[in-house]
Amino acid sequence: MIEKRRGAMRLAACDAAARERGLSPGMTLADARARVPDVVAVQADVAADRVWLDAIADACDRFTPLVMVEPPDGLVLDMTGCLHRYDDEPALLVEVDAAMRRWASVARAAMAATPEGARALARFQMLPAPDEASALRRLPVAALELDSENHAGLRRAGFRTLCDLADRPMAPLAARFGGDLVDRLRRILGEGDSRLVPRRMPPALAVERRFAEPIATAEAALGVIGDLAAEVQAMLETRGRGGRRFVARLYRSDGHVTTLAIDSSRPLRDAQGIARLFVERVGSLNDPLDPGFGYDMIRLAVPRDEPLAVAQLALEGGATGKGADGEDIAALVDRLSTRVGARRVRRFVPRDSHLPEQTALALPAIEAPAPAPWPAPEPGEPPLRPLHMFDPPQPVEVIAAVPDGPPQRFRWRRTLHEVVYAEGPERIAAEWWRRAPGDHGLTRDYYRVEDGRGRRFWLFRHGLYGSERTDPRWYVHGLFA
Predict the structure, then answer these.
(1) Structure pTM?
(2) Residues 3-59: pLDDT tens digits?
(3) Domain boundaries, the chain
(4) 298 neighbors 237 (Cβ within 8 angstroms)
(5) Buried-state track 301-320, b at ≥16 Cβ within 10 A, e below 16
(6) Which of 73, 133, 331, 382 has a 20 to 30 A CA-CA distance from 238?
(7) How many CB atoms lie within 10 A of CB 111?
(8) What is the pLDDT of residues 307-324, one digit of tens each?
(9) How far apart are CA 86 and CA 100, in angstroms?
(10) β-pairing, 407-412 with 415-428?
């Protein structure tokens, strides 16, 4: 595999036959062809390699939820608290190796107390050792994975293994080769603080089922998800919580992983409701579920949860009328969002802004915050804002008695309207704190007008005469009922 580095085509990876004939990664393609004229060079596809590595990481979720990707060809699994499923560490390594054989012809695995130690053992250990500490100290200095200049400097200074460095004072090593060498050495030997950054954060809770005989139908898989939802419901009730997002992962026996996710517009823990949403989700898939040779493991996780109080019941039993309406609407939003897509079902949410077009936002209903009360008009007063607003406002031609006075007639959509009544102006200034430097914005003067046929419009003059612009323009922004 070749890729362009430092202005030349170089070998990015070699198979065993190429290595036996003296080729190695980093060598230029010209040198490789000089040594092996019949070498087969293929352009490396970094994006495809990353997709391949992510697919392996998904399959490794069956061992632990904490998986970190180390491109281009490494994975780190944190097995803390997960070893109880296996007889011992060697048994775990055997199972991991068997799973990796489905994806790669060559895989090296190792266990250590730190991610850096496990990486170093997997990549550089050549001979067995009686214990972890001995194995780490016998590793070559190449396990530090320093740049070529520092690595050559270590070799010239007579350092061959990590044991040679560990027995020396750290201060002189840091002064000569940099603090990065000391930090890497301490992390590999388990003397420094090591952190693993997983590709997915651990969920609030998760339950799973493993099967001695894989289940081979999508209906059976949905039934298992329903059973897991009942377990999740009991756990959420104990905690006084409800889930806002549920993720089901179906692990096929050949290593393929199918992920199904649903969201809820309010905290949810009803097992039947969760199972029904997953049925809707499967029904909305472009490609139906393909069990292949069967699912040998199914996991249901709750990545996001929120407090959920016990529902208030009426005296005669059942939910109160107000609560029932809210529950029914939320259930409808959840089902529609799951079936047609979250972005296609929206809810208007009030926003604290004095600009009319920004006082309400249309957000996905399943992600919108809890509904807030809308401002109510004064009793007996006409509404301040129209029911229908244009986005963007539509230009009109206006004639006024004085330049900064109310409109007397205006032409909109090739129709002339004579103004009978006008109320205003309501002056609205631009948001100075959001404007770009040098942009002073324009003031709007709004008028509520009624024409001779009783139709009511909301017009505004954009800009002030003399101060902001000499030719303010008029627009119709909305229509009153």
Answers:
(1) 0.71
(2) 998 889 999 999 889 999 999 988 999 999 999 999 999 999 999 999 999 999 999
(3) 2-44, 110-202, 205-310, 388-479
(4) no
(5) bbbebeebeeeeeeeeeeee
(6) 331
(7) 17
(8) 987 666 665 655 544 444
(9) 17
(10) antiparallel
Read off the pLDDT of residues 270-298 as tens digits, 9 standing for 90 and up.
999 999 999 999 988 888 899 999 999 99
- Cβ within 8 Å of residue 10, ≥6 positions away: 2, 3, 4, 25, 26, 27, 28, 29
Q: How far apart are CA 101 and CA 98, in angstroms?
A: 5
The CATH fold assigned to 2-44 is MutS, DNA mismatch repair protein, domain I (3.40.1170)
Residue 342: CB partners within 8 Å, gap ≥ 6?
A: 263, 364, 365, 366, 367
Percent of the chain with pLDDT over 90: 53
Query: Contact 269/201 with Cβ under 8 angstroms?
Result: no
Helix (H) or strand (E) holding 32: helix 29-35
> Which own/partner pairs from 451-460 qualify as long-range (CB within 8 Å, at least 24 positions apart)?
451/417, 451/418, 451/419, 451/420, 452/417, 452/418, 452/420, 455/417, 455/479, 456/386, 456/480, 457/412, 457/417, 458/385, 458/386, 458/389, 459/396, 459/398, 459/407, 459/410, 460/393, 460/428
Choose among 49, 17, 12: nearest CA to 29. Answer: 12
Are the C-beta atoms of residues 365 and 337 closer than 8 Å to each other?
Answer: yes
Identify the CA nearest to 412 among candidates 390, 382, 445: 390
Cα–Cα distance, 57 to 68 (Å, whole number): 8
Fold category of 205-310 in CATH: Dna Ligase; domain 1 (3.30.1490)
Amino acid, res. 266: R
Q: What is the DSSP letter of 402?
A: S
